[in-house]
């Protein structure tokens, strides 16, 4: 009950704090459009500064979008305890599947149930878990995938 109340209060605050506050993600135009219980959706417009020599979005820009979205999904799932933990993106696997042109969007989801992870965090003081991210172009084509293993440790 208390966790649900803290989540209700904290998630909008965490979303507001994250959206447009990470300097490099902000420079890339990444916007956090939604954050839920271990889920997030982010968008990034195509800008001339983000294009590679081939005229498609640079892989680094796609990486930034996906990594930002993974952090938002993690923070959304752990909003009730986020002020009491130190989150670290411990491992990242990133794969570009095809060139991306135009605006892109990312959807991320914590790959495990949040409640048992929170229980382990309470008892063990730390957890590791993956967040899966898919990046799509404006037509809905999957252009990149990311898997981030997050480490949360009590402060």
Structural summary, described in words:
There is one protein chain. This protein is α+β, with helices and mostly antiparallel strands. The protein has one domain: Hotdog Thioesterase (Thiol Ester Dehydrase, Chain A, Roll). The protein has 4 helices and 6 strands. A 6-stranded antiparallel β-sheet has the order 1-2-4-5-6-3. The longest helix has 19 residues, at 59-77. The relative contact order is 0.19. The model has no long low-confidence stretch (mean pLDDT 92).
**Major β-sheet profile:** 6 strands, antiparallel
The CATH architecture: Roll
Largest beta sheet: strand ordering: 1-2-4-5-6-3
Structure annotation, total helices: 4
The fourth-level CATH homologous superfamily is Hotdog Thioesterase
N to C succession of SSEs: HHEEHEEHEE
**What's the Cα radius of gyration?**
16 Å
Structure characteristics:
155 residues, alpha+beta, Thiol Ester Dehydrase, Chain A, six-stranded antiparallel sheet, 6 strands, 34% helix, 35% strand, elongated
Summarize the structure.
The chain is of the alpha+beta class and 155 residues long. It contains four helices and six strands; from the N terminus they run ααββαββαββ.
């Amino acid at each position: 009950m208390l966790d649900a109340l803290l989540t209700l209060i904290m998630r909008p605050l965490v979303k507001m704090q994250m959206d447009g506050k990470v300097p490099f993600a902000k420079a890339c135009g990444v916007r956090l459009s939604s954050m839920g219980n271990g889920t997030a959706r982010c968008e990034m417009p195509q800008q001339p500064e983000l294009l590679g020599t081939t005229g498609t979005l640079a892989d680094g820009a796609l990486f930034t979008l996906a990594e930002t979205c993974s952090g938002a999904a993690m923070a959304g799932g752990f909003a009730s305890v986020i002020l009491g933990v130190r989150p670290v993106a411990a491992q990242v696997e990133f794969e570009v599947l095809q060139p991306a042109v135009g605006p892109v969007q990312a959807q991320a989801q914590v790959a495990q149930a949040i409640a048992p992870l929170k229980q382990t965090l309470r008892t063990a003081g730390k957890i590791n878990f993956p967040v899966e991210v898919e990046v799509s172009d404006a037509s809905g084509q999957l252009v990149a995938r990311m898997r981030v293993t997050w480490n949360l440790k009590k402060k």
